[in-house]
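Narrative progress, year one. The postdoctoral researcher (J.K.) led the effort to move from monomer predictions toward full complexes, under supervision of the PI. The following entry was the first complex the group processed end to end, covering 1304 residues in total.
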Amino acid sequence: MRIYTFIVFLFFLDLLTAQNNEYQSILIDESLTKNVNAVVRSDEMVIHTTSKKEMKVTLRRVVTVLNKYGDSDIQTSVGYDNSRKINKLYAVAYDQFGNELDKFKEKDFTDVSAVDGGTLYSDYRVKYLNYTPVKYPYTMEFNYQYTTPNTGEIIPSWYFLDGYLVSTEKSKISFLFDEEDLKPEIKEKNLEGIQFVKTVNENSIVYEAKNIAAYRQESLSPSFGKIAPKLIIRPVNFTYEGYDASIHTWDDLGKWMYNNLIVGRDELTESTKGSIKSLTNGVTDNLEKAKIVYQYVQDNTRYISVQVGIGGMQPISAIDVDRVKYGDCKGLSNYTKALLETVGVTSYYTHVEAGNYKVDFEDDFASLADGNHVILAIPYQGNYYWIDCTSQIHPFGFIGDFTDGRKVLIIKPDGGEIATTTTYVGEDNHQSTTAEITLNKDGEIAAVVDIVTKGIQYDDRFYLENKAANDITKYYKSYWGYINNLNIDQFGFKNDKNKIVFTETVQVTAANYGSISGDRILFMPNVFNKNKNVPDRERNRKFPLEIQRGYFDEDEFVIFLPLGYEVEAMPKGTTIENEFGLYTTSLELSEDKNSIRYKRSLFIKNGQYAKEKYKDYRDFRKKVSLEDSAKVVLIKRD
Amino acid sequence: MLKKCLRIALFLVVSQVAMAQEFDYGKVSKLELEEKTHPIDSSASAAFLFKQRTTFFQFSDSEGFQVVTEIYERIKIYDKEGFDYATKQVNLYRANQGNKEKFTGLKAASYNLVKGKIEESKLKKDGIFETELSDYYDQTKFTMPNVKEGTVVEYKYRITSPFIYNVDEYVMQENVPINKIEASFSAPEFYNFKINVKGYLSVSPVKTTNRKTIISSGADRSGNVTSFNANKLEYIDHIHTYTLANVPAMREEPYVNNIDNYRSTVKYELSYVKYPNSIPKYYSTTWEDVVKSIYDNPRFGEELNKNGYYEDDIDVLIEGVTDPANKLALLFNYVKSRVKWNGYYGYNTNLGVRKAYKEQTGNIADVNLMLTSMLRYAGLDANPILVSTRGNGVAIFPTREGYNYVIAGINIGNSLVLLDASDTNSLPNVLPVRALNWRGRMIKKGEESLEVNLYPNALSSETKNVLANLQEDASLTGMIRNVKTLHDAKLYRDVFNGADEDNFIEKLENKYEMEIEDFKVDNAKELEMPITETFKFVKENQADIIGDKIYFSPLFFLRTAENPFKMEKREFPIDFGYPSENTYRVMVNLPEGYKVASLPEAKSMSLPENLGSFMFTITENGKQVQLLVRTTMNNALITPVYYDVLKEYFKQLIEKENEKVVLIKV
């Protein structure tokens, strides 16, 4: 009898531990498994800064993967380099009941050079584990620890959610610092509405969050980084590659960067100085001089990325770039800055977060880790002109959608300054398409089309002039993909780099553009700028609608009708005006009834709108798409 | 004999002199620098002015024979798109025990015209980068200084390799034009190589010989007595030289399975080694040799013959089962669920079948050799089939490297059934697309081999039944039933199985821009059954209402909107992956108060040689329009000869599918 109860007791205990066991995956809370590919059971990092010159980082991460799309969420990889040493690395896989399946030691990890496509060489390396799941669900526990003397390399952010379609059961980050001085500065982002506990002690700050349901990606929403619950972190007193730092403001950071990483790297040979001076000889205006120097750099250098040691932060010296005529964004910017200096033009080295999606530097949070790119700011008559020295083709002062309209750090000898780069929004991004089109009785069209673009629309098109003929033909066939049997007979370009205007002239034909139905011919009068772009339908929109730039298209097509046909029916034309913009179309039959003049404009404003507005915007775009496909019906005259 | 040798020597000297005049390292001409565009291909962003490769065998006492490859290339860069050619990347193989390829003798420079003068910039150390890429490869990269539009770069280097059985392919065609190629390959008579030529260019070597002597001062290892006398060995070098001029650039096209299949290359593969006074050791000259050498590798043949590790499990599994088809199904499913593919290719086992079975994961050979072995154990006539995956190109010649994958084949009755257990959703004769690449080679017991077609013969089918109501506001409501078989079903399962259903529906809604309800999939996991997807839908704007008429294409959103073949010309075969048939049955109820004014005419057309066909019939009964459309592609692969016909076929198909039904108010 006694024995019997004992057994029952054991069994009961087993069940209890099973429930608490984060390795099993049969008892996960349903709110965490809905709409997800993986559940982060536990993500715990401890960052222990023992001195200004030593930081120890420990991670223990347990992820349950529910299907094959969640395999990448185990994130079993860790990077290292000459100063970052891995002291511990292993992983364990478990089945759904929490039974151990396999254990992976450090030697089971693949060790590779961490060079991405755009980089020629980097001494950064990665150890990663390539795991083949036998069955879903499974759970992976991943552990590492590394030490580094670069206390400035503290992670710049901690995400309580990994990404879309991944939920979090527990996420915990601990900052331990042996001296008050070593305490990092932390800022909370989007933590409203999540369950978390913050514990602050004399020598530690700990955040622990629990049970966060997964986010789903929504079209035209702000980026994940902007909406995710996270902490942003910056070191205050630290060392980086042997340089000592104490940073409180952007001004401090700018000063530190300038004095440690930039100053004295602008030396040039006398012969280079001589030749750049002779190029600008007789030019007095600083902006004109800067244009000449930029052109010189564009004609003579190319982008090659090499990242060695401190090279991740510090530019290669100007003299070296001058000799080989290549460099990365840091090297080329610094080189251009040195050339400008030689001809008496001041410019500033500038950190920016580059990419099509605009990301601002935080006003009051000076972080060394912010930014992934370098450009130059040239002050002129109270304004800044911006140049990207890694592009060989952009016009002077035009930075396109890679670095436009965002807050950046300008690094000046006497300190740093946050400024906003040139912004291209709404009407700035203009495209005008005009065409003369002849439709014949077989439905074939022949047309000459002119497309004139400015702003970001210029940025989208001007590279065409550098493409091979074959690729240009391919481009137009895909740009007008909705026109079947399209033939590109001729094309020509004019790139006005001063006014930043690109003009394309294209001559095309397309058989069967009009579809013949007995005595009738049907065709869409909007031949060359049909907008089919309708954002996805979303039932429960969670996030705001964001349009970062907007644009303005104006079109005018004259369509000559085939002999012996007259218009039977024609769309009336539309005007839709709302908070998102304006859409108009109009059709007009010529007096001699031989041609139709089709006019259209579509203006999309930039802006951020409440999530409830998303549906209205989608309806607007649906109407545009529908109206853009409206047809004219011609009928044979008796 | 002597005379002949002399003549040959003379010839070689002459051609070398001729070469020396044109392309000598460091002697870049003004003319080359002044050239603005390529004289033949004006769209080229760069061109190889000269591409030279010399591969020969070099003897040293410590290393024995090694393969030395010397590269010299001169490249003209016309525009910014061509800057990539100023960076060169060389991967160097590294085996165990310190055996590795060595990169030496790099000399490189770029040349520019500055004020009418040629300016040379030499490559220095800071432009050379060495990386340990992975466990098996080192990589050396270098990038030239002073590169701009118009620059000429040139470089030479040497690779010394102990891997005499693995000579890198000669690449005779690049993505930019090559003005002149000079290549040579010479090997001592002891090493017999087979030449495999691929691509559209006619490439054939001029063959010559040369007498050679080596003096070895090392220990004589042939006898029991070690003597330190100098050994003198005389032998004949066989020399192949290639001279090509004006090689056109390769260009990418859609629906090409792997463009490298069509690139002109020459591959030297070791077929046998015969040292003086010893028995020749054969590698591969015929398919029999290839098969033998693969089979003899312990990681293939021996692994295939192991069965102790699974006997007990399999005995239980197939106890009492006699029907071969049932046995096949049981074993195939058993391996699929028991051992998962770890993503690595290869016809040699990686972990070994025993370990793979235990750890439940392995490479392609682990999985499929295990399957073959089990099928044999169960008394079936099963054999491994070597395959070259799409990424690996087509195995045209008898080579070991031509293959990188293995599947199982089994004879049941008169037919051969192909099996690949590395893919959860694969079925007998429904291989994953990666393995669908021309022909494989079946290795039978007794080491004979036989070519087998990997492309399926059976048509994969997709049948869409639509029952819909067209509303007066031009929206369409209705129901779709979509039945898919074989590869069409497999590709659907690849996406659907394992995905979250809500997400799947959402993607479908966005793809068709419609609202979906009552979504249901049958037979998602019952692989041998056709997979069936049914749902109700509402889709707006499916007709044009103009005046008192309504116009609509009766296939609505299912019609083919764009011709996949847009370019005027086609050089490479068109690869559809597998033969297929699509059927659409659409029944549309007309809106109240409308009748049909006109219907598109019926149409049927066929591609030549029974390659494919299209059929379109439409009827109406006053209230309903009924449509039947069937397209068939009988072949997976269509040669470019038929490109124009195929393009025209798609043009007409699209026109027909886009033609309108016209309704008029009663």
